[in-house]
Every structure is written in C-alpha cells, then in structure tokens.
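To: structure subgroup
Subject: Chain for Friday's discussion

All,

I'm putting the inputs and outputs inline so they're searchable in the archive.
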Amino acid sequence: MTTVGINEATIRKYIREQEKHDIAVDKLSVREFEDPFKGSK
C-alpha cells in the first residue's frame, strides 16, 4: 500500500512539472515548433 502512495505522489509531481514545461513552451514562438517536414516553402 505504501508504494502506491509514493507512486501517486511521484506522478502528481511529474504532471506538475510537465504543466510548467508546457506553459513555458506556449510562451515561445509557435513558429519554432512547426513541423519542418510539411514542405511549406
């Protein structure tokens, strides 16, 4: 039972970190993240 609590806490922390990362990425120019292989020249 204890491992479940530890894993849950770890997962929650991971999700929080991912959300921070996603927010940081959103603040950057979208242009930088366009797929270079689309062939839009």
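Points worth raising on Friday:
The first helix runs from residue 2 to 27.
The radius of gyration is 17 Å.

D.
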